Amino acid sequence: MAALVLDCSVAIAWFVADEASPSGASLLDRVAKEGALVTGLWRLEVASALLAAERRRRIAAAMRGHALEALEELPITVDGETSRRAWTETLALAVTHKLTPYDAAYLELALRFELPLASYDKDLRNAAAKAGVTVLGR
User: How far is CA 97 from the centre of its chain?
Assistant: First the structure.
């Protein structure tokens, strides 16, 4: 079983120099040792964020490739239920907490598995705390 739910924002910070932090390094170590659970959209979100960082010249193309290889090596499990819950639990959380459905999917996952949520997204962190989820990160 995974130790935490991992939001895309934390994973991207591991590879974008100006987003590095001690909490990020600690979370990377924890994921490497204990594993993480991510939404069914996580790979698309990571690819999109890395490509955006490359286009904005925050990372080089080689770093994008390195990041994807490094993430592939980590014990990260992709949830197979994300899509099935999109129009029910996830949408309800999005409405209640004024989140995007994408962010609400991480909250739904943390609630369903009773896991802490690692995120740097302010709105998601606030919603998770209000929902009683332990929040990890900055």
Answer: 18
The whole-angstrom separation of Cα 116 and Cα 136 is 7
**Distance between terminal CA atoms of the chain?**
24
SS (H, E, C) 60-113: CHHHHHHHHHHHHHCCEEECCCHHHHHHHHHHHHHHHHCCCHHHHHHHHHHHHH
Q: State pTM to two decimals.
A: 0.94
b (16+ CB within 10 A) / e for 42-67: bbebbeebbeebbeeebbeeebbeeb
State mean pLDDT over 12-39: 94
Cα radius of gyration rounded to whole Å, the chain: 14
How far is CA 124 from its chain centroid? 10
Range of the domain at 26: 4-136
Torsion of CA 107, 108, 110, 114, to 10 degrees: 140
- CATH number reported for the structural domain that contains residue 110 in this entry: 3.40.50.1010
User: Cα–chain-centroid distance for residue 116?
Assistant: 11
